[in-house]
Amino acid sequence: MRWLTGLGFFFACFAWGTVEVKVGGYPFAPFVEKRADGGWQGLTLDLIEALNAGQSDYHFLFVPTSSANRYEALQLGRFDMMLFEDVNWGWSSERIMISPPFLFDGERYIALNKPGRDQRLFDQIDKLRLIGVKGYHYGFADFEGDPAILQQRYDILLVKDNVSIIKALLLGRGDVGIITQAYLQRYLNQHPELRKQLLISHNWDQRYQLRALIHPASRVSLPILQHYLGELEQKGVLTKLWQAYGLSAVAVR
After folding, report:
1. Where is the Solute-binding protein family 3/N-terminal domain (predicted)?
2. 18: which residues sit within 8 A by CB, 6+ positions away?
3. For position 250, what pLDDT does the model report?
């Protein structure tokens, strides 16, 4: 009966008239976060849902990967595209198609708000114990993302995600954490009691210019994706999504 199952799937796809487009993503809050039940959530998943609801020619499907493996996975075509990436994070335009930026965010330094501390603390991060996420690229390190090199050159503890940075900081495992601005604001809205415990830098470690990256053999072209994003922008869908996550957008072109 296996051939009947395959035949049923074929006719279902034919009836839908859709082409499957795989979208890679790795834990990068608030864009991709793993739920307690093992599933995935975040802005990437919400945007995929909006793209699927806005048209019927393509079906966008989330495919999990890791921050370290995403380069090879995209190059090998294990998925067609990625959303919310910055070209400074080790990407080469020779092997992928890159959209104009359509969203901004960044990372700030945070520390425990102890007596006598002020913004001058963040002027000497090279002398402090840092906490970051393994596989991420940081401005203070000229966007170096290799964990071994970061640990060799800096006094840095590398953890698995943004919430682990806050937990490690509260446990005194480091002096300064480097954390995504949008995630930090959402976390503080959910845990307002922590606002007085944290000193947040006024300056950025880096500013993201977030783009879509597409494999040259992708099932969807860059102009088509831009068209769909433009339609979502005109309908106000993108604005609602960005606002829900406390992010700053630029016009989709």
Report:
1. 20-249
2. 56, 57, 58, 59
3. 60
